[in-house]
Amino acid sequence: MKIEERFADGELTLCLRGELDHHAAKLIAHELEGAVDKRLPSACVLDFGGVSFMDSSGIAVIIKARRRADELGASLRVVGVGRQPERVLTAAGLGRLVSIETASE
Fold first, then answer.
1. Regarding the domain with residue range 2-102, which homologous superfamily does it belong to in the CATH classification?
2. pTM exceeding the 0.85 threshold for the entire prediction
3. Rounded to an integer, what is the distance from CA 41 to the centroid of its chain?
4. Which of 19, 36, 56, 103 has a Cα-to-Cα distance from 27 of 20 to 30 A?
């Protein structure tokens, strides 16, 4: 899993590339926490455009990001979600907690 961080105008974007499984989830959670603590953004974006596979570990990453964003009073969006990750997120009902935008939107 590769992670690219961008920060502009108070918005922190983490672009994820690769497979989001148990091992990658730990890396992403750590990276997200460090980036948020460093930048204190008003908005957070998880860009899933490069995520080719996601298991339930990805759900935990998003929930953790939601909690941290809430602590800061920041918004959270998950964008660029492909078909396979979308199925996992839909089955978990995550759309009720977080704004999720599919790759086709």
1. STAS domain (3.30.750.24)
2. yes
3. 14
4. 103
CA distance 13 to 41: 10
Q: Whose CA is closest to 42, among 7, 3, 14, 16?
A: 7
pLDDT tens sequence across 48-88: 999 999 999 999 999 999 999 999 999 999 999 999 999 99
Residues 28 and 1: their CA atoms lie apart, in Å, by 8
Q: What phi-psi label fits residue 40: left (phi over 0), alpha (psi between -120 and 50 degrees) or beta?
A: left
Contact assessment for residue 22 and residue 59, using Cβ atoms and an 8 Å cutoff: no
How far apart (Å, rounded) are the C-alpha atoms in residues 69 and 23? Answer: 23
Domain locations in the chain as residue ranges: 2-102
DSSP the chain: -EEEEEEETTEEEEEEEEEESHHHHHHHHHHHHHHHHHH--SEEEEEEEEEEEE-THHHHHHHHHHHHHHHHT-EEEEEEE-HHHHHHHHHHTGGGTSEEEETT-
